Amino acid sequence: MAAELSPIDKAKFVAARRAVDFVSDGMKLGLGTGSTAAWMVRCLGERIREEGLRVTGVPTSRRTAELARQVGVPIQTLDEAKWLDLTIDGADEIDTQLNLIKGGGAALLQEKIVATASDQMIVIADAAKEVAHLGAFPLPIEVIPFGWRTTMALVEETLVSLDVLNRECTLRMTGDRPLVTDESNYIIDLHLKRIGNPRQLALVLNQIPGVVENGLFIDICDIVVIGQGDGRVTVR
Ligand code: 5RP
């Protein structure tokens, strides 16, 4: 599966493959979204085909659901599964406390619901995702389309009240239209450069009417599996 991969894809692949070792027979799994999570779904499909592993997955996006079907991973909805043993997902940034920024793939809402409904969350990533402080990657927030400009203004006001210096907010576009998430919402990206207090920011953002969820995952991730371009993997 890993033949002729670029170093970045190899890093993602080896992290995904190692994380799939944590999966055991009978588990109910949360299936993340993004290019690294896609490797995990493929590796899971391989174990199902080759070892007869029996698992069910709850996908966190339509894209992941489609891939799971293609590679033979049985899926169900979160309401059918009710509670999950393990979620494996990617991330855009991981700090030293295992707090995350997610949502680069616009799936943060379902990803957070699914990870929170799991006994354990494993994050898989290439080494470039490890950071000392969150915030260089723009923080996505999912907002309802109704009144999104007003919601964005309220977010900016909130950032002023928290003395956040860099606080440019942009509506995520696809071509000349706002990107629409699987839950029919919009994404606003907060360009903050560095987040001083991620826990506080995560709580405050979710108090703003119109904000559905933010991409800060605080105290949700339990284990991080980092892959390197040369095939080395570290688990912490
Ligand atoms: C999607 C996500 C992804 O997990 C995150 O963007 C990482 O993606 P990739 O593995 O492609 O780098 O949060 O909403």
Automatic annotation (TrEMBL):
Sequence positions that bind substrate: 33-36, 89-92, 102-105, 129
Print the keywords alphabetically. Answer: Isomerase
Catalytic reaction equation(s)? aldehydo-D-ribose 5-phosphate = D-ribulose 5-phosphate
Q: What is this protein called?
A: Ribose-5-phosphate isomerase A
Species assigned in the record? Fertoeibacter niger
MF annotations from Gene Ontology = ribose-5-phosphate isomerase activity
One Gene Ontology CC term in the entry? cytosol
- Which pathway does this chain act in? Carbohydrate degradation; pentose phosphate pathway; D-ribose 5-phosphate from D-ribulose 5-phosphate (non-oxidative stage): step 1/1
Q: What is its EC number?
A: 5.3.1.6
